[in-house]
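Repro:
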Amino acid sequence: MQFNERIFYLLEAYTSGTASTGEEQELMTWMADAEEDSELKEYVRKFWSNYKPDNVYDKIDWDSMFNKIIVGNKGPSLSLKASFHWRWWTRAAAAAVIILVGMFYWLFSTIGSKQHKNFVVKSPNEIKSPAINKAMITLANGQKIYLDSANNGTIVTQGSMQLIKLSDGHIAYEKKRGDGALSGTNGYNTLSNPKGSKVIDMQLADGTRVWLNAGSSIVYPVVFSDKKKVSITGEAYFEVAKEYNRPFLVSAGDMEVRVLGTKFNINVYSDEAIPRATLVEGAVSVKANSTTVLLKPGEGVHLDKDGGLHLQKHVNVEQVLSWKNGYFSFKDADLSSILLQASRWYDVDVIFEGDMPIVRFSGDIDRGLTLNQFLSILDETRIHYRIEGKKLIIIP
């Protein structure tokens, strides 16, 4: 059998689900080591031509397809920010090509007269990365505003403040034009960003900006008085407007962060084992019970089970802020913590059938992947699963 024919055989075996573990590895290795995109294109073109229905082949924009998957690595295909161990990104790109070839066959196989019973495309229950923001604001009077359905421009007016939605989805509190001193309500609004929702970015009345991760919320005053204080659940990143006469206070579970003007991240998800705060820029003090810790940029603090604060120097800030910047970042992370993040982002419940596998991972994954694409990386280390509705079931 010639080398080209061998590749055709491996492609067909992989997409039909009949490839052995050794054959899958052989195909992934070949595609990962392909030096020229043109060579890869040619192999897949020939593979497709063996199965294409009549008059369909010319309709495919091959250059555009491959540029998105291999060259640009930015399309709806697999896209990893950085490599996992064992050359994850090359395997992801190879899998994307295989998936797309199978997809084209599935789409067009009913048009032509050619049918191939041994070529089966599996259609898993696809759960996509959040495409919209599902955040909701509950006003002081109990009225609820769903931001995904709100029009751009002024959403609501409260006293001298108006809540505005911009075209990029960013929301902001701004004083109405022509008004003098801030007036009106001293009530509190609540911004809730549920599981399965994109990160939401909001500017408060004093100019402070807040980013909320999925499964998080913040309670804040419409107009700040002498004391500027907000409270959060989940995870948030703050860029606090500088105002030396009034400190900005963030209440997060058993921790309170006090700042004058700074950038910091705080994670207090109720299902996380360790609440923590990380300073990016400026200076903050973190208080819990009777203990106060001062942080410098690049330092963090976490709260133990007994309520004690522990200082951590030389924190990887980029990893801490990965959620805000569009990717997951893991460093020697266990399966439980990885799936916990996935459950919030994709809005699924994780169930283990049997004992939890003892494995650890390091690397970065683009948050734009579908859940199946995300899990295919874990599957490379023999983590197997099935999806039933909103349940992600990990199987032995």
